[in-house]
Write a structure and sequence with these properties.
alpha/beta, Nucleotidyltransferase, domain 5, five-stranded mixed beta sheet, 7 strands, membrane
Length: about 130
């Protein structure tokens, strides 16, 4: 007579699906936590300083705006309304224009001067910065 064991022994196994769920939850938690630690809406900008390449020997036309919002083209004072007329004779075929604006100058005046230069034919604006 053959006796049966009253208890059938099962072989143990590791369930991997719950472990994958836990790892995914931890990954998502750490990603969201690291994003919450950064202030994504703030941008720190200091325009007058920076690294720039050396200018080539042939100097393009310079559009300057000083702290008093006075506009100059190659060191000659120009009114805001006369920029496009005055720049047409200076803009070369490459259309490069160096914009040198004081950090105290009004942003709106600088943008209006650049828009006037765009009407005169300037295609590329090079922003002058203080080299560190």
């Amino acid at each position: 007579m053959k006796l049966r064991r009253s208890r059938v022994s099962k072989r143990g196994r590791i369930e991997i699906i719950p472990m994958i769920d836990v790892m995914f939850f931890l990954l998502a938690t750490f990603m969201l936590t690291s994003l919450a630690m950064h202030r994504l809406d703030s941008v720190r900008i200091d325009l007058p300083r920076g690294q720039a390449q050396q200018m080539p020997a042939d100097r393009p036309v310079a559009l300057s705006v000083d702290r008093a919002n006075q506009i100059y083209i190659n060191r000659q004072p120009v009114a805001l309304e006369e920029i496009s007329g005055s720049l047409k004779r200076f803009i070369g075929p490459d259309g490069n224009l160096v914009v040198a604006a004081d950090d105290g100058a009004s942003h709106g005046i600088v943008v209006q001067a650049m828009l006037g230069a765009r009407k005169a034919g300037a295609r590329h604006f090079l922003v002058a910065v203080h080299r560190e």
